[in-house]
Amino acid sequence: MMNTNHFNPRTTNLNIPQAKPMPKPYDIYVEFHERIYKPGDTVTGNVHLSLRKKLACDIVQVQLYGEAKVVITKTAMSNTPGSLTRNTSSSQWHRILDEYETLWQSPYVNDPKTFVSTDELVRMSRSTTINTRKLAKPTHFPGIEAGEYDYPFKFELPASGLATSFQAKHSGCSIKYSVTAMALNNGSSVLRKKELFPIVIDRPLDLVPNAFMPVDIHGKANISGHEIIAKLSLHKRGYTPGEPLSGTVEIINNSKKSVKYCCATIVQKITAYTNLPHVEISKTVNEIASTAMPMHKITANTQYKYELDYHIPALTPDFEIDSCLSVSYELKLTVGLERKHPYQVVITLSAPLTIGTSTSGLEGVDPSAPPDFDSNYLFTDAPPSYDYAVGSGSRFDSAPDYDLDEKKAL
Quick one: a GO biological-process term for this protein (predicted)? Predict the structure, then answer.
């Protein structure tokens, strides 16, 4: 009779606990006392070491480093059929900060070190060597014993010569500041940790020319012999993050079609320069945030005017590093006839914007924080149901009959 109670390792559940990875023998952390720094501030913090065994090192240092870097990469195409393409890059970088501070040093770091010559190493490695002896080792083994350690650091930032921290996607340029903690043994790094921190340069708007000048621009498009006119008005050009964007948009639709797309977008323009191995110029445009018109569409032979209900997001202030990097902003208004194809627009308007950090309490500046989400809702009643929205009728088929003053009261 066959025994069916045999052991099958594939089907038998042994409840063997999963192996856990061994913890790292060394951990290092960099902690800052502040989140944002300005020129002239003191960068302070702690370097925390968590050692589960002795760390062989003779010195622990921190480095304050800052640089502006630009890298432009282009794909070179060949006119020869079948040949491969290749990428070429050029760069430029400026060192802004580079300072060191020693946190810990071994008392034996200045002791004379014993070195073994190459001839002795070769002789001791031969199999025919008689009476082999161990190579000479130092009397003391420098390092930090296992345990938890905190080392404070302190750096004084210069009052001038700095730039605002900056980094943008797909631009290849950045301005970064960091504090790097490192443990060295005979000049070689055995443990290191790098942490970035931001620096913001104060840019008061009252020192920027034309920051409080109004902007009025307009454009028109001819659709089958009829015009669509768009007007964009801003009460001023300069704003700070969190401040409401004050302005109006007016659409005069004299055509036979409905205007279904009208969007105001904050655009960030980046211009970068390189000089190694050759000079290159790169221009990048990033759309930061947008706000659409507060109605479904503007029907034929009607017009509609509304206020921009939007707050400036947290943006890097305008700046320029001569022959290296510059950042500026503009407000772009796009008007189209189809919502499904928002990039097929008929009118595009651009108004310059200036982003600063403070307003010094000037008259006409609203420093209030953005309101809650519910207070931004335009309609007082509930939104339509799904069945009603996808049905034949819609309450948004025509423009509301209230004027601008009535809209403010909602």
Answer: protein transport
